[in-house]
Amino acid sequence: MIKKSVCFIIMSLFLGCASPGVHPPSSQVPDSGPPAFMKDYITPPKERKLIAIAGFQNKSTYSADKLWDTSAQMLTSHILDMGYFRVTEWDKIKQLFDWRDLSSMNVVNSPEKRNKMRKILLCEYFLTGAITAFDVSQRSSMSAIYKFKLFETTIRVDLSLQDAVTGEYLSAGTGEWTETQEFAEGKLGTWEPKVADKALDYAIRKALLNLTEKYDKFFREQG
């Protein structure tokens, strides 16, 4: 009876000391809300330029139907929210131009197509985007004490701003964001596309903010 009590005490001490060091968080990482840069704004000039999204291309290895369209819609929303530029309605652009051109860089790479879009939309600048990275990684670990699984979704977006008449590049911006899903203590879960939507949305916002800051700094220095 004494031997059993001693063994029980030793095991209790061992598990009590080991548990805090090996247990990961017990549930999926909670949503902490949008990052701080999502609320950043740049004071717009008195005369805001009219821009049109001339294409959004998926250059990543991840294939998804109409990812270019989703990205352009997100970009339009952020342009409107930031208020630095005026922007042509994306749905209008889709009605007037071929989706094959809008899901690539065909418009800005062709002087003829560029001039046609400029004359129809009466825009001053063209804005194009590309998803240059879309990576989903998984890590997992399992032992007699716990089970742990982690998904990381990383997306990188590049944006370019061009003069609609000359085709001259005026500014560019890059944004990258990683969203994490974490499951522990035997909780079941798989990768969710909505996590990628959030990572894409944040990456686009970062890229647009980066592009606008560069543009604003250059033209204010020019006087």
In short:
This protein is α/β, with parallel strands linked by helices and 223 residues long.
Describe the model:
The protein has 223 residues and is of the alpha/beta class. It has one domain (25-222): ABC-type transport auxiliary lipoprotein component (Rossmann fold). Helix content is 42%, strand content 28%. The protein has helices at 2-22, 67-82, 90-96, 99-102, 106-109, 111-121, 193-222, and strands at residues 50-58, 86-87, 125-142, 147-163, 169-184. A hairpin with a 5-residue loop joins strand 4 (147-163) and strand 5 (169-184). Helix 2 (67-82) crosses helix 7. The N and C termini lie far apart (90 Å). 31% of the residues are buried. The model is unreliable at 1-30 (pLDDT under 50).
Helix-strand category: alpha/beta
Largest sheet: 5 strands, mixed
Q: Which CATH first-tier class would you pick?
A: Alpha Beta
Q: What is the CA-based Rg, rounded?
A: 25 Å
Estimate the mean pLDDT confidence.
82
Shape: globular
CATH topology: Rossmann fold
Record keyword descriptors for this entry.
223 residues; alpha/beta; Rossmann fold; five-stranded mixed beta sheet; 5 strands; 42% helix; globular; disordered N terminus
Topology:
Blueprint: H1 2-22, E1 50-58, H2 67-82, E2 86-87, H3 90-96, H4 99-102, H5 106-109, H6 111-121, E3 125-142, E4 147-163, E5 169-184, H7 193-222
Parallel strand pairs: 1-2, 1-3
Antiparallel strand pairs: 3-4, 4-5
